[in-house]
């Protein structure tokens, strides 16, 4: 179908044009999105243009109508006078064949002719006898009326016997003039003739044009003025708001002593005052919380340090007892073993706490060097091979064949991976655990995938909280401290990397560690997806 | 959104530009047009004979001699239509038609293509309906050559004199007399001016035509006695047909002079009302220039024409045994003779009485031979008891019948009468005193009769057996007579004449053909005739008197001439009824008893 084809072409061009338009108007659209000022001014301009345009059109149209109808009234009354005169003059001819009739028509036209020829053409008067072909049309001044008196007009007047009017523009004697043509039948004793009265609308037209121009100019001026006013007013409002926004930005950037300038007593002053009040409150609260947090971290650090000394003593005693346990009664020996184990745990917990407090205190420092990550991964899995064997979990490694060199702190990376793989084995429920590593120019990603119980929605973030457990009732097989993932997150962050979790009940979970290849680089994307590829796509959305 | 701003501006500009007065619009019907009028005439062309109407030669000649009668401008074409194409091409006539009276019938001889017509020229008929008598009597012959057309039946005029000819009969049948009026120079009354209007003129066009005539001015012979309409008087447009019982006339502003405008306007409207009297509806709406339209109702204007005072039944008198006596069967037959004291009513030969609204004037010729005298008097009282008669001096012997020319209501001193004395014309005044001779130039022979129309200015004179017309004009302390115009009535010689209507004279004389005396009415231009008493044998009529018809009298006959005509022959006085009826002593109302048996009433007259 050609229509459809044409439509297709049109659509294609439209798309091209739209695309180009979009491209070219992008800055404008950005400015539109960003500037309240621009929006208000534009909307004011549009709104006022519509309003002023409508009113202007109404006024101009109405005044043109009034002018025209006034002229029509004038002409109408003048016309009825003329018709009455022509009628009275023609009453003396009972027959159309009266040889004097043509003279009478001539005289009548002469008499009816106004004679005042304005600079741009005066009125034209014409008597025609459509039904009496012997009688010539008499027109004064003698111009060609074919442009003015249309066949339609003649039909209406001569055949239907109606009084009718029409506006015509005609070129008479080289001057183009707008005429109001009035036609009326003139009754006579033998039938009727037709009288046409053509009045130039020059004055009215000029007046209408002047009104229109005035309305247009006034309207445009008004719209521009409104735009300017709207711009000024918006500026008055937007400027303090911008100041407030800047101040808020600085506040949020940590410059807590930033305040707005309170000027006057108006709403904006109120806003500034309220903003300042809020800022002061926030500052106070933040300072208080910081203080509290500092105290808490100090307490944790202090407690950990203070516990270390007695723990060392207890440890030494416990080690002695443990080494001598074979000499004890079985029950005592068992206790000695328990003591030893719990002390290990305690020591681990204390180490973690100290590590955390080091992070909190900001003492953690990255000891970055160029390292190959492949051996680190292998080491970690080897070390956890025993645990995996106990849990009946097979750990599968998907590592690149080439070395993956990155500027990392190998100790911390190993700790993170150990944590991740250990957790995975722990929650794998005897299903395999897959460790994958990939790299590109900017980043290295390691994912640890298990197919265990998975994570409930929302737990992806909770897992990184300190002392958080998926199931509090669950037996602590590995005896983790509950701080492992928290420390891992801090380690990743110290590298400028990410540690993220994904999980779904019944589908297992996946953790992804992403690290920049060069220390200090900003990460943009990870080479591996967080949501595993082996998962059904629809669920991932 | 930023894009929409210019769009909006463009749209608003477009909208604004579209809201002026449009360049073109459709035809809008404002309302129904006025309804069409109803035609007053028939659509048929006027019933005028054409060339092919007849193939009878006599009739054809009659038709040919009537062809010029009709629309003035088309006369030549109508006449040419009777001619063969070649004759028509060569026919270059004088444009003004001649009105002729045939003397005898056209001589049509079988086999002779020539037709001989003996004629007497009555005058020329102008476009303004004015029939002007020729300066000199013309009597002659026309020869018309007839031929047969190609069809073998119809006739052609092959050769004709280069004149447009209208016979008097055609004039009578195709035209109607229409009197228009002009004010006399003293502004005391209207003077009729008789014109001929085509009967074909639609009634709607009559007012326009009449006003055109008025503007064009009076007949030349009246000019010295009448006032013309002011220079620049023009009819604005045409006079519309009468609607709502109103005749609307719009004249240019010059129609009324600025000086004495109210009087002039009143005169103008009376002049118009009289001139259009037969058509006049209830109301005359007269508009001068752009002034307010004045409406005139009623018949108050009628007093402006002295003829309107004429009674339907006149008071009749005769002289019987030297006394003025009333005739019976006339109004007030038993009353005294007005303005003549009984003691003065003796030895009267001829007399004239004239009355105005308030006064009665008397003029008596008494005595005979050396004691002949004219005595005149005026009285406000009709009984005549208090009247005194004064003698008019300075008259020669051989006095004729006195006539009152101008009689005035309020100024008896300005009233003037005329009398013929030994063939000359004299004027006298109501208060007596010396008579003055009125110069009458251009007439041949002695004046034998004088008559003055009711308007007081138009005069008919019989002198040397011929009939003349003239006008009296007031000049200085007397009157003067314009140069008389010869009229051509079909009588020769004329022995007596009197006005019998506005456009008619009753004349007595000898018929041209057979020498028989007859009394007939002729129009004031001598063109038309209305026989009254066709054959009186050879008894010469030496005096005729008529009581002119009142133009406002609805039962007046169509022609507008007198019902009452009396005349005298050598030995008796007669009434001209359908036959002559002698006035006997028995016809007198109160005949004085002491008269000899053979006394007969003489010198009958009317109270004019």
Automatic annotation (TrEMBL), chain A:
Q: Which reaction does it catalyse?
A: ATP + protein L-histidine = ADP + protein N-phospho-L-histidine
Q: Does the keyword Ubl conjugation apply?
A: no
Write down the Pfam families for this protein, in alphabetical order: HAMP, HATPase_c, HisKA
Task: Tell me where in or outside the cell this protein is found.
Answer: Cell membrane
Q: Which residues form a coiled coil?
A: none
Predominantly, its location class is membrane
Write down any Gene Ontology CC term: plasma membrane
Where in the numbering of this chain does the Histidine kinase domain appear?
302-519
Where is each HAMP domain found?
235-287
**Can the keyword ATP-binding be found in this entry's annotation?**
yes
Q: Which superkingdom is the protein from? A: Bacteria
Give the EC number.
2.7.13.3
Main enzyme class: transferase
Q: Which NCBIfam families match?
A: MtrAB_MtrB
Protein name stated in the entry = Sensor histidine kinase MtrB
Species annotation: Actinoplanes lutulentus
Automatic annotation (TrEMBL), chain B:
The segments labelled Disordered in the record are 30-55
- The secretion signal range is 1-22
Biased composition range(s): Polar residues:
43-53
**Pfam families for the chain:** Germane, Gmad1
For this UniProt record, give its keywords in alphabetical order, as a comma-separated list. Answer: Signal
Composition bias of kind Low complexity appears in 30-42
Residue ranges that the Swiss-Prot or TrEMBL entry lists as coiled coil: none
Which intervals hold domain GerMN? Answer: 179-278
Q: Tell me where in this chain the Lipoprotein LpqB C-terminal domain is found.
A: 331-528
Quote the protein name from its UniProt record.
Answer: Sporulation and spore germination protein
Q: Which organism is it from?
A: Actinoplanes lutulentus
């Amino acid at each position: 179908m050609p229509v459809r084809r044409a439509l297709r072409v049109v659509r294609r061009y439209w798309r091209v044009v739209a695309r180009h338009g979009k491209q070219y108007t992008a800055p404008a659209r950005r400015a539109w999105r960003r500037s309240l000022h621009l929006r208000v001014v534009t909307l004011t301009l549009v709104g006022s243009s519509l309003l002023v345009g409508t009113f202007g059109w109404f006024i101009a149209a109405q005044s043109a109508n009034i002018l025209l109808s006034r002229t029509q009234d004038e002409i109408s009354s003048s016309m009825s006078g003329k018709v009455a005169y022509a009628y009275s003059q023609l009453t003396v001819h009972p027959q159309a064949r009266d040889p004097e009739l043509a003279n009478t028509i001539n005289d009548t036209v002469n008499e009816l002719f106004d004679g005042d020829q304005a600079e741009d053409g005066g009125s034209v008067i014409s008597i025609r006898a459509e039904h009496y072909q012997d009688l010539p049309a008499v027109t004064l001044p003698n111009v060609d009326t074919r442009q003015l008196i249309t066949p339609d007009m003649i039909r209406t007047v001569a055949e239907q016997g109606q009084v009718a009017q029409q506006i015509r523009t005609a070129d008479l004697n080289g001057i183009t003039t707008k005429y109001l043509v009035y036609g009326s039948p003139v009754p006579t004793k033998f039938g009727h003739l037709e009288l046409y009265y053509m009045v130039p609308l020059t004055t009215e037209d000029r007046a209408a044009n002047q009104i229109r121009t005035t309305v247009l100019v006034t309207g445009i001026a008004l719209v521009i003025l409104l735009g300017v006013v709207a711009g000024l007013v918006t500026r008055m409002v937007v400027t303090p708001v911008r100041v407030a926004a800047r101040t808020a930005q600085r506040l949020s950037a940590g410059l807590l002593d930033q305040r707005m300038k309170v000027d006057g007593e108006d709403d904006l002053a109120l806003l500034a005052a309220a903003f300042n009040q809020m800022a002061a409150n926030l500052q106070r609260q933040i300072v208080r919380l910081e203080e509290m947090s500092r105290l808490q971290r100090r307490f944790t650090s202090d407690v950990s340090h203070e516990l270390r000394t007695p723990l060392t003593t207890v440890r030494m005693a416990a080690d002695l007892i443990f080494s001598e346990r074979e000499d004890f009664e079985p029950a005592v020996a068992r206790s000695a073993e328990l003591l030893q184990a719990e002390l290990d745990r305690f020591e681990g917990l204390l180490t973690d706490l100290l590590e955390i407090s080091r992070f909190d205190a900001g003492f953690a420092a990255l000891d970055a060097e160029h390292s190959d990550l492949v051996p680190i991964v292998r080491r970690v899995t080897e070390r956890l091979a025993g645990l995996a064997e106990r849990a009946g979990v097979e750990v599968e490694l998907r590592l690149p064949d080439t070395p993956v060199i990155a500027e990392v702190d190998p100790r911390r990376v190993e700790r993170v991976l150990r944590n991740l793989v250990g957790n995975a084995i722990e929650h794998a429920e005897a299903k395999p655990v897959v460790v994958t590593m990939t790299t590109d120019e900017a980043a290295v990603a390691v994912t640890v995938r298990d197919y265990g119980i998975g994570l409930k929605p929302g737990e992806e973030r909770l897992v990184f909280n300190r002392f958080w457990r998926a199931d509090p009732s669950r037996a602590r097989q590995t005896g983790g401290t509950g701080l492992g993932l928290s420390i891992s997150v801090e380690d990743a962050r110290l590298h400028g990397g990410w540690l993220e979790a994904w999980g779904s009940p019944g589908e297992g979970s996946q953790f992804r560690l992403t690290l920049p290849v060069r220390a200090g680089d900003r990460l943009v994307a990870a080479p591996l997806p967080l949501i595993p590829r082996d998962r059904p796509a629809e669920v991932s959305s | 959104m930023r894009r929409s701003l210019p769009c909006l501006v463009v749209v608003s500009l477009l909208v604004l530009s579209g809201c002026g007065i449009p360049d073109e619009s459709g035809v809008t019907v404002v309302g129904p047009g006025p309804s069409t009028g109803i035609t007053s005439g028939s659509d048929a062309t006027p019933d005028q004979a054409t060339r092919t109407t007849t193939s009878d030669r006599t009739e054809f000649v009659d038709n040919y001699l009537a062809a010029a009668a009709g629309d003035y401008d088309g006369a030549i074409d109508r006449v040419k239509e009777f001619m063969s194409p070649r004759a028509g091409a060569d026919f270059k006539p004088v444009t003004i038609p001649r009105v002729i009276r045939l003397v005898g019938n056209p001589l049509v001889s079988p086999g002779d293509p020539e037709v001989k017509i003996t004629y007497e020229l009555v005058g020329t008929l102008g476009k303004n309906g004015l029939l002007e008598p020729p300066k000199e009597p013309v009597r002659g012959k026309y020869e018309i050559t007839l031929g047969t057309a190609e069809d073998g039946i119809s006739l052609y005029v092959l050769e004709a004199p280069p004149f447009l000819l209208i016979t008097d009969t055609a004039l009578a049948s195709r035209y109607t007399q229409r009197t228009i009026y002009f004010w006399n120079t003293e502004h005391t009354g209207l003077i009729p001016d008789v014109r001929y209007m085509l009967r074909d003129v639609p009634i709607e066009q009559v007012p326009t035509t009449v006003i055109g005539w008025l503007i064009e001015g009076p007949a030349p012979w009246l000019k010295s006695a009448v006032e013309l309409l002011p220079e620049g008087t023009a009819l604005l447009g045409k006079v519309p047909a009468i609607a709502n019982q109103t005749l609307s006339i719009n004249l240019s502003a010059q129609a009324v002079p600025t000086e004495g405008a109210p009087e002039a306007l009143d005169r103008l409207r009376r002049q118009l009302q009289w001139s259009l009297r037969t058509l006049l509806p209830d109301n005359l709406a007269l508009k001068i220039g752009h002034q307010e339209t004045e409406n005139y109702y009623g018949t108050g204007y009628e007093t402006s024409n002295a003829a309107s005072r004429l009674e339907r039944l006149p008071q009749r008198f005769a002289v019987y045994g030297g006394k003025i006596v009333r005739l019976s069967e006339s109004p007030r037959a038993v009353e005294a003779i007005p303005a003549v004291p009984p003691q003065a009513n003796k030895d009267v030969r001829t007399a004239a009485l004239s009355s105005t609204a308030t006064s009665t004037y008397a003029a008596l010729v008494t005595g005979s031979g050396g004691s002949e005298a004219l005595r005149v008097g005026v009285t406000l009282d009709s009984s005549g008891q208090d009247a005194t008669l004064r003698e008019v001096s300075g008259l020669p012997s051989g006095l004729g019948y006195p006539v009152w020319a101008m009689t005035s209501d309020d100024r008896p001193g300005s009233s003037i009468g005329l009398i013929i004395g030994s063939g000359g014309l004299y004027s006298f005044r109501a208060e007596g005193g010396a008579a003055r001779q009125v110069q009458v130039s251009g007439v041949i022979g002695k004046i034998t009769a004088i008559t003055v129309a009711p308007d007081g200015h138009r005069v008919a004179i019989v002198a040397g057996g011929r009939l003349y017309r003239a006008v009296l004009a007031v000049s200085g302390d007397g009157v003067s007579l314009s140069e008389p115009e010869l009229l051509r009535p079909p009588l020769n010689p004329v022995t007596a004449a009197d006005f019998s209507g506005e456009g008619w004279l009753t004349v007595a004389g000898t018929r041209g053909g057979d020498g028989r005396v007859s009394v007939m009415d002729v129009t004031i231009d001598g063109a038309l005739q209305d026989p009254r008493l066709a054959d009186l044998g050879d008894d010469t009529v030496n005096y005729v008197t008529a009581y002119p018809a009142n133009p406002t009298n609805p039962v007046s006959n169509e022609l507008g001439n007198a019902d009452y005509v009396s005349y005298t022959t050598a030995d008796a006085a007669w009434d001209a009824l359908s036959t002559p009826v002698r006035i006997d002593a028995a016809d007198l109302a109160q005949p004085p008893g002491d008269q000899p048996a053979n006394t007969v009433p003489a010198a009958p007259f009317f109270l004019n």
